[in-house]
Write a structure and sequence with these properties.
This protein has one domain: Chorismate synthase AroC (Chorismate synthase, AroC fold, 4-Layer Sandwich), CATH 3.60.150.10. Strands 10-9-8-11-17-12 form a six-stranded mixed beta sheet. It has a five-stranded antiparallel beta sheet with strand order 1-2-3-7-4, with helices on one face. The protein has a two-stranded antiparallel ribbon with strand order 5-6. The two termini are 28 Å apart. It is built from nine helices and 19 strands. With 381 residues, the chain is α+β, with helices and mostly antiparallel strands. Helix content is 28%, strand content 23%.
């Protein structure tokens, strides 16, 4: 079950980076949800390679086909099979390095675990696997939007040392807010952010000065045969109170699991995150106030989650991604026998993964929230 995620909503992805196709099977989505290939294609287009000069130039159209579970533009309540063909495959790019485990890739660990690893690309460890996640996430998001009005928007919040800060949805001049804003060029309002605003920039940072600096940094590492990492921040608005299954399936725990399962993800924080560790309780506590639709909190340093359960405030979190492991310069390493080897650049890869990680983060968030929504619905029957 290592390729399956979720309990009430189960998503299984399949396919390798240079195999015939990739995709997903989504099981547990209720009947009657509006869903078409066009709905799914919109998100896949945001993930696909070759979008700009700062992404890999692998030429994939990533056209999705719905094989089952949908009829007349609505879900049937049965398993939904989604498939995307791999068109621009070049397994021969990897012929010269078959005996060398690539630094910071999964070649070595897959071979240790399974006794074999994919002969080209990263196989299941490749970011190509996330095509199935994005397709499945688009289906999950259709359910969340139809039944609850949930809105999920992610964006690039940093590249290397360049960042755009996000006020903690409260405007408070706190230590955590100051820590988050340090070294930031501009601030982004998570309450009003839209995907259109995010996609207006190739780097997917909806702040013009920050976006320019980030893009320049990515182009610089490309020119020097290197790569750079960054972070993606995500906000989920209109999430009802009550979602999350303590104690081992807390909402933030499942979001962390989902985000850290994405290739190249190395860190996760929700709400004030690590900056909150520098605060006192009197600063950090979100006091309750009466709001139009009931009880709410004056601030939102908890990131919309208390005790592992959503509290009705926006859920927001950040995921950190390491620099792309494949770089455009030679690396001195060792082959599988332990002999000295020189790894020459091969294949086509992103110099920075975060611009294309945005829809992946959104999709995994949608899968988690849909799973939590269905679990809560089952509890209330």
């Amino acid at each position: 079950m290592s390729s399956t995620f979720g309990t009430c909503l189960r998503v299984t992805t399949f396919g390798e980076s240079h195999g015939d196709s990739v995709g997903a099977v989504v099981d547990g989505l209720p009947a009657g949800i509006p869903l078409t290939e066009d709905n799914i294609q919109t998100q896949l287009n945001r993930r696909r390679p070759g979008q700009s000069a700062i992404t890999t130039q692998r030429g994939e159209s990533d056209s999705v086909r719905i094989l089952s579970g949908v009829e007349g533009g609505h879900t049937l309540g049965t398993p939904i099979a989604l498939v995307v063909a791999n068109g621009d495959r070049r397994p021969s790019d990897y012929d010269s390095i078959k005996g060398i485990p690539r630094p910071s890739h999964a070649d070595y660990t897959y071979k240790v675990k399974y006794g074999v690893c994919a002969s080209s690309g990263g196989g299941r460890a490749s970011a190509r696997e996330t095509v199935g996640r994005v397709a499945a996430g688009a289906a999950a998001e259709a359910f969340l939007r139809e039944r609850f009005g949930v809105e999920i928007v992610a964006f690039v919040s940093s590249v290397g040392g360049i960042s755009a800060s996000t006020p903690m949805l409260d405007g408070a001049d706190s230590a955590a807010s100051n820590a988050i804003s340090q070294n930031s060029i501009e601030c982004i309002d998570l309450n009003t952010l839209t995907r259109g605003m995010v996609d207006a920039y190739p780097v997917r940072c909806p702040a013009s000065e920050s976006a320019k600096a980030m893009e320049a940094a990515i182009l610089d590492v490309m020119e020097n045969g290197d790569s750079v990492g960054g972070t993606v921040t995500c906000v989920c608005r209109n999430v009802p109170a009550g979602w999350g299954e303590p104690v081992f399936q807390k909402l933030e725990a499942m979001l962390a699991m989902a985000m850290l399962s994405i290739p190249a993800a190395k860190g996760f924080e929700i709400g004030s995150g690590f900056a909150g560790a520098a605060m006192r309780g009197s600063e950090h506590n979100d006091v309750f106030v009466k709001k139009q639709n009931g009880l709410g909190t004056l601030t939102n340093r908890s990131g919309g989650v208390l005790g592992g359960i959503s509290n009705g405030e926006p859920v927001y979190f950040k995921t950190a991604f390491k620099p792309t492991a494949t770089i455009g310069s030679h690396q001195t390493t060792a082959d599988y026998e332990g002999n000295d080897a020189v790894l020459k650049p091969t294949g086509r890869h992103d110099p920075c993964v975060v611009p294309r990680a945005v829809p992946i983060v959104e999709s995994m968030a949608a899968i988690v929230l849909a799973d939590m929504a269905l679990a809560q619905n089952a509890r209330m029957r």
